[in-house]
Request: fold
Amino acid sequence: MEFETIYKTYWDRIFRLCMGFVNDYDVAQDLAQETFIIVWQKLDTFRNESGIGTWIFRIASNNCLRQIEKEKRFPKSELPPHITEEKQYSLEPEIKFLYKCIAELPETERIIISLELEDVKQADIAKIVGLSEANIRVKIHRIKDKLTQKFTENG
Amino acid sequence: MDNNIEFKDLWRKQSISQPNIDDLQTKLKHFKKTSLRKLILTNVLLIATCFFIVFIWYYYEPQFISTKIGIVLNVAIMAIYLVVYNRLFDAYKKMDDTDSNTEYLKKLIQIKTKQKFLQSKMLSVYFIVLGIGLCLYMYEYTAMMTLFWGFFAYALIILWGGFVWLYLRPREIKKENLKIDNLIDKFQRINDQLEADL
Reply:
């Protein structure tokens, strides 16, 4: 598959996954770009064992996990104020709240629920995360309960 | 209560701006250039140290074998240090990004643990060899001094060595280990999230 096609097809989905992980527009944008740099580097090693989607989501989620290492390197408070300044995106508060809630979950749950909301099949989520399908099903159920509870509390 | 559809709906409404593919291409080119530059720089550094050793050897024509051994030891340990660090960095870069999260996390923890071990061991070996090298190197020149100044020179070196060994080395190792321990802890914690309820 052509890199350009992959980029155009998957950018939005990868961006949302990263956004669910960090809930910071600029960081998510960087993470998504890094993901595509890795995809571009590794594209010739891709063998059709798993679908291209599963393959890309694996790269993206692993890259999100690696983000933890970078967090330490650039603590936000040390950045000049204009960089951390929150941009004004005209989003419904509910959308913001959903992303905020997801980003507050434990790291692996963020990945699992983001993939679920992206309509990735549970069997594929299991392959991306490396757990059994049954386990993923249980986890998704619990995460959704958590989110529902947060939404109910928030009114 | 099933809020599935509502969540999916909200999830997709996130505003997204897809950067132009040309921007990404520029980044890719830049990325390629910097990795190549790094590779060249490492090799230039290694070759330069080799030339340096040869230059000192020929230019100053040391008479004593101890001086020669001293020079070789010092330069060799610097080169080894450089190589070990680069290899560690490579192992890190060569991690398979297409593994499942579980595998990936396990490998990250493994590499970090190895890095911790290498860093503390390597730093100690580095200081020991550098110290021995320096003492051997100095011998030829102190032998030309009076006994007093010879002792004085060695006393200074030993004092400095003691300071490095007893103060700087543990401090540096502690600092590095703290950083790595923090990371290993975090990765381990995430890994535990996956293993819970299995």
Chain B touches chain A through 40 residues (CB under 8 Å).
